[in-house]
Structures are given as structure tokens and as C-alpha cells.
Design goal:
Largest sheet: none
Shape: globular
Number of domains: 1
Order of helices and strands: HHHHHHH
Number of strands: 0
């Protein structure tokens, strides 16, 4: 049996036996990959370990658990239906609630915890950049939401969303580092 197949079997077993923990850990791992990629793409030569650990904490402590409970709530609200009308409603609800909330939480966490900036600076930055970030999110995330709610089984939605968040986190981190470079120069 191949390593990949054994790994998948182990993941499936953990997902079944320790659902929340497994989703939280996977969100942390994908947050780590996101941060390593964004650090390298933004030109950081030496990996910033503190930043990496803080991103992993965000994934494990917030993204994974929030996604787990949010997806369960959506399934309960919409009684697990997958017809086009229900999927469209789930996508709209998600786009108006968890999407904006998660972007705000990431921007707050990044500014206050990862960068260690004062509240007034973070607040000003969010007022300036949040509308652009949220608009950018709304240009692609409804399609992702449609695919997720229509084709991805409930137990895999958090890892699917964590993978998307990994890519989105690279975008947000690059945007944050670019705007910091512009304000310094």
C-alpha cells in the first residue's frame, strides 16, 4: 500500500474518530503552508518562525473550529438539502456572514497579533483596506461556495474551505506586506 493511500486512510479514520481536532489540525497545517508560501513570495529571505507559529495558531484555534461549527449550523438550518435553490441560499448566507467575518478576523489578527501594531493603526488600515478585500473575496468565493455546498460532502467541507483559505491567506498576506512596504517607503 502506498504512503499516500495509508495517509488518506489515517486521515479518514481521524476525521471519523476525532472530527473537530482533525479539522483544526488540518486548518493549522494549511495555514502553515500558506504562510511559508506568502513569506517566500513576498521576498522574505529567512523564514519568520514567530509569524509562522502565529498563523498555525490562527488556523488551529479559529479557522478549523469555526468552519466545523459553521458548516454544521448551515446543514441544520437548511436540513442538509442540496437542490439548487437551497445551495444558492447557503451561498448567500455564507457570503453575507462567515466570509466577511473571517476576512475581518484575519485582518485584525494579522495586524494586532502577528504584526503587533497598535489598535489605532490596525483600525485605520481595516477601514481603508477591508472594503477592497471583501470585494475581492466576493469576486470568486460565491463560486467556491457553490461547489462546496453542491459537490463536497459535509465531512470534507472544512478541509476544502481550509485549502481555499490557504490560497486566500497568501493573497491577504501579500497584500498586507505590500501595503506595509508602501507605508514605510
Amino acid at each position: 500500500m502506498s504512503i499516500a493511500k495509508k495517509g488518506l486512510q489515517h486521515y479518514m479514520l481521524q476525521l471519523q474518530q476525532r472530527t473537530l481536532r482533525t479539522k483544526a489540525l488540518m486548518a493549522g497545517v494549511l495555514s502553515a503552508i500558506s504562510d511559508i508560501a506568502s513569506q517566500k513570495l513576498s521576498g522574505i529571505q529567512k523564514l519568520q518562525i514567530r509569524r509562522l507559529i502565529l498563523k498555525v495558531v490562527f488556523g488551529c484555534a479559529y479557522l478549523g473550529p469555526f468552519g466545523h461549527f459553521y458548516q454544521l449550523l448551515l446543514e441544520k438550518l437548511f436540513k442538509g438539502k442540496k437542490d439548487s435553490s437551497t445551495v444558492a441560499k447557503k451561498v448567500v448566507v455564507e457570503q453575507l456572514t462567515s466570509g466577511p467575518w473571517n476576512n475581518l478576523m484575519f485582518m485584525l489578527y494579522y495586524g494586532l497579533v502577528i504584526e503587533g501594531r497598535p489598535w489605532t493603526h490596525v483600525k485605520t488600515k481595516i477601514k481603508k483596506e477591508y472594503p477592497t478585500v471583501q470585494y475581492a473575496s466576493w469576486t470568486f468565493s460565491p463560486v467556491i461556495g457553490w461547489i462546496k455546498h453542491r459537490h463536497v460532502p459535509l465531512q470534507f467541507r472544512v478541509i476544502f474551505q481550509s485549502f481555499v483559505a490557504m490560497c486566500w491567506g497568501i493573497f491577504l498576506s501579500l497584500k498586507a506586506s505590500r501595503s506595509m512596504t508602501l507605508t514605510k517607503g
